[in-house]
Give the backbone structure.
Amino acid sequence: MNQLHRNDWNQWWRSAAIYQVYPRSFSDSNGDGIGDLGGVLEKIDYLEQLNIDAVWFSPFYPSPQHDTGYDVADYLDINPEYGNLQTFDKVLAELHARGIKVIIDVVPNHSSWEHPLFKQALAAQPGDSARDMYMFRKSSDGAPNNWGSMFGGSAWSKVEPLSGKASDRDWWYLHIFDASQPDFNWENPKVHEFFRSYLRFWLDRGVDGFRVDVAHGLVKDPALPDDLVGPDRLNYEGPNSENGRALDVGPFFNQPGVHDIYREWRQVLDEYGRDRMLVAEAWVNTPEQEAMYVREDEMSQAFNFSVVNCPWEPGALRKVIRRTQEASASVGAPATWVLSNHDTVRHSTRLGYPTGANTDNGIGVTDPQPDREIGLTRALSATAFLAGLPGSIYLYNGEELGLPEATTLPDDARQDPTWKRSGYRVRGRDGCRVPLPWSNNPSSNFGFSPARASSPWLPQPADWGELSAQVQESNPYSPLNFYRKMLATRRSLGLGMGKSTWLDSDPEVLSLLVTASCGRKVIVATNLAVGYRPLPQLALSKGTKVLLQTPTIISEDAAPSVEDSGIGPGQTLWIEI
Ligand code: NOJ
Ligand code: CA
């Protein structure tokens, strides 16, 4: 079975363009300022016209929203703010009817502290089996070890204030993220059983796959040893750190035992057929470590975050892209390409800063602001480059509008737990989560909500309307219409299922020859130099055709044609030869 799983090169996810919907921010159908599944139903045509192959929904489960739904209080239902299971079934049916697959987010490292299993654990006595579903430890001398939370501060909190029991005085529970997100104990077979039945529940409903949250974090070193970093992970300069924070290494990340879990899950998915998929969110440090998650009998694919962390610099980009291709090929898995998601600064903003600028802590009004024009030009170029390559590409809602990060959000509107837990030092991720603009009408939250709605859950910048889908619709050169064309071309040629070879004649230009699944040959090239560069040699022969071109840093009117001048600064071209 697993052999077949790997060898079927037509599996949809190998080449899909997968669009992430962040439910709270996508579209609000009832005017409470909060996105919902009814809002998704209103945008089915939009999703179809975007020419995506699948939608990935960030968590939509009942949740107290201390981490925007990544704190799940019930894995088998829908947050009433978003709708109910019937609304979900409708969304699923509508998307399937348009040939769009559906991936949902599974959060297996931790639940919400409002999950009945955690409540039962708190109600039980220390040592009771109900407590064994989570990571409780006794320690009379401070926290059981020095582990820090990913959101700042200790990864341990005291049990007594939650349970109200004097017998809990020396007891602690582990939470690698917020205190409202207690970690499950994956050494307990009942936790395995719980998630196997979770998978079946949603597979029975018809979902096509799961995005696995913190896939590298479920298993901890059983000795719970102190780590090198200590409790301040957001302010750490030692080994395994980057930009003043600890990387995802240590006794609670990437332990060998996590792989057993995904072997087990693969078997559950295989009961439903080979087209159901798993994609790992595993922030490991090398493409080789990442490839371990997509070995033959484990997951289908893993997000490749190396490009997210890569500067706009030809040598560095070439290196991470090559390395990704080699590592995924070594295990027979497709490459995945990711530039933005709900945890990163939007790439149109990230790329608008000079090389070396650090935006990892989020951006506030008092921080240096990006160059929006350069950022957008590079963002479209980077997206078009990766979308032209074999593999699947993940897109984050709003990037098709060229939306920038909201870099001037008032600090008192921030909701990311990191802001508070870091002592108001690390601003966090709210800037990429602001509700999307659908029209130019401010009274409907720029079309996010119906008219005269409540304010959106995060405030929208005043110029959001000009970036809206409605405004972009009528402009043939808008990012929205560019994305539609790019994804249509990618799909019709089968570029995602192609084979590629590097051309690399110019150190400033990344260029590959992609032989699409239909047999047609396309040069995919990006110019990272500040001036024009000649086209790759192969593109100069007679009869070549420019299939796609992104804008150059120089404005449209002044830009000479590709045929006359070659590839413009910051530009990506797809040229059929
Ligand atoms: C990764 C998710 O993408 C992020 O948004 C969340 O805060 C953490 N995992 C914890 O679930
Ligand atoms: Ca709503």
Remarks:
- Residues 439 and 446 are 5 Å apart (CA to CA).
- The first helix runs from residue 2 to 7.
- Residues 67, 70, 107, 177, 213-214, 281, 342-343 surround 1-deoxynojirimycin (ligand 1) (CB under 6 Å).
- The chain has a mean pLDDT of 94.
